[in-house]
Amino acid sequence: MRHRQAIAVLSLAGFFVALYLWLYKIGVIGTVQCGTGGCETVQTSPYAVLFGIPVAFYGVVGYAVMFAVGAIGVQPRFLARRGPTLILAWLAGGAFLFALYLTYLELFVIHAICRWCVVSAVITTAIAAIAVPDALQKQA
Question: Which comes out higher in pLDDT, residue 136 or 126?
Answer without folding.
Answer: 126
